[in-house]
Amino acid sequence: MALNFTDQTAREAIESGKTVVIDFWATWCGPCMKLGPVVEELAEKYGDKAIIGKLNVDENDEIPVEQRVRNIPTVLFFKDGELKQRSVGYVSLSDLEAILLPLL
Domains in the chain, start-ordered, CATH in brackets? Predict the structure, then answer.
C-alpha cells in the first residue's frame, strides 16, 4: 500500500537515501485519480524495495515548491537523497516500472 506523505515524512524519506517514489496529486485532479491505482499497484509490487507514496499538494506545499512541481499528477523518483527522474501526467504501470527498476 502506498504511504500518505506529508511534507515532513516525504523529506525524511528522501533524506534516508533509499529509493523513494512520490506521487503528487489532488482530489480535484481527474488524471491524478486515474493514476492513483497505478501508484498503489507499484507500491504493492515494489514497496519492500522502495518507499512509495502519495503527497496531496493541497495539504502540503513545501516539497512541491522545493521540487518545482508545477503540474499534477507528477511522480518524482529519488535515490541517495537526489531527484533522479520525473514523470508528468498519467502514465502506465510499465512506464513507472521502467523508471523505478534501474534505481533499485
Answer: 3-95 (3.40.30.10)
Q: 104 CB contacts (<8 Å, ≥6 apart)?
A: 19, 46, 49, 50
Tell whether pTM > 0.85: yes
Segment 57-71, tens digit of pLDDT: 999 999 999 999 999
Residue labelled with grid coordinates 537523497: 81
Active site residues: 29, 32
Cβ-defined contacts of 86-94 (< 8 Å, 24+):
89/31, 90/31, 90/34, 90/35, 91/35, 91/38, 92/38, 93/38, 93/41, 93/42
> Among 76, 81, 60, 75, which Cα is nearest to 6's?
60
